[in-house]
């Protein structure tokens, strides 16, 4: 049911999974006691009832190897002595909204195939008559239908992101801590993340907080798991996970005092993995999410798609193509407007270091009357004015204009940038009617990245250049379509 509702990795889903374990344990225990009791009422089955009871208790004792009662009775007695008023009782009551409580109740009351098999087993053993079995089967069907409809109407987990406003780099001071959530599937991804973060050149005056999430496909279990490695928890990844952990811990030691690293592992179904990413970013107040390029080409020229992250946040997709042995980076920003403003803000933060040589290329249309809306034009002018002022006082910042009339001329200029820079930064989204991009959409093989990013991420590109694609946080009062 949680999978069908697409809320397995949500807060309510996690609570339901944990609660259902206790509920199912108690319900099965009570049902077993009742079944044995009914067998005991039949004179000819008293021996069978006694035999089954002894073996069941022996099996439980053998599995647990523990006959103490402290663990069983402790939480129960604690719950009885907790006062129902303030301060403790009221705090506990305030932890679950009424709508979520009702939704949780319907989730836990919904029975599935396991309960149906239990009813069928009791029907075969004649502990349930045919009429009772039919009634229970019908009730399971009706509960499942009602629970799905009611939970969908009551619970919208995306509302937790509505207050997550202006968590981006544009509204983050250069001298404040930049909080980054990075995601990685394998060691190559961690290396790409580290190289991307190294170009930020964090300092004590401009520190960096990194929260790295190792993503593991859920196999061999039904419930997702989030592992916090700071608490000493270990995942099933073994040596592979440990190697990934050590890569970023060495990065933390390299920039001691300027970088803090916390690492997590999420074990989840691939189609729900983005819930864990967004939830962790929300809890850690991250201003930046870094994702490795989610299409990986193999020897058969096929690809697999990385889980999509919703866009209530800023998104960065990175493809690292070189391991630069030098201590300096030549960074270029292709500026058309839109999401490029966020890319420019991140580049400006990096350019605080003299080891970064930043070149901003603004693509300007020959048609002076064409372009974005008035408001977008004002925003573009503001961020570019700030960058041109910095270029006048900093030798490592260069501002240029490139006049183009259509997408063909833009493509030529982009290819020229590929040869000149170690890293190219560009925004993900631009308006479809932008004259500078006219015609490029027809050759877009990777629509998730857009035409400019598609050229830079092409599999046949032989140049050693890193690509950083940025999307600015989408500000909405409510996120509705959470899986698009």
UniProtKB/TrEMBL annotation:
Recorded superkingdom: Eukaryota
Spans traversing the lipid bilayer: 12-36, 48-67
Query: Which biological processes are named by the entry's GO terms?
Result: inorganic cation transmembrane transport; potassium ion transport; regulation of pH
Key word Membrane present in the record? Answer: yes
Protein name per the record: Cation/H(+) antiporter C-terminal domain-containing protein
> Does the keyword field hold Transport?
yes
Name the GO cellular-component terms: endomembrane system
Which stretches make up the Cation/H(+) antiporter C-terminal domain? Answer: 330-474
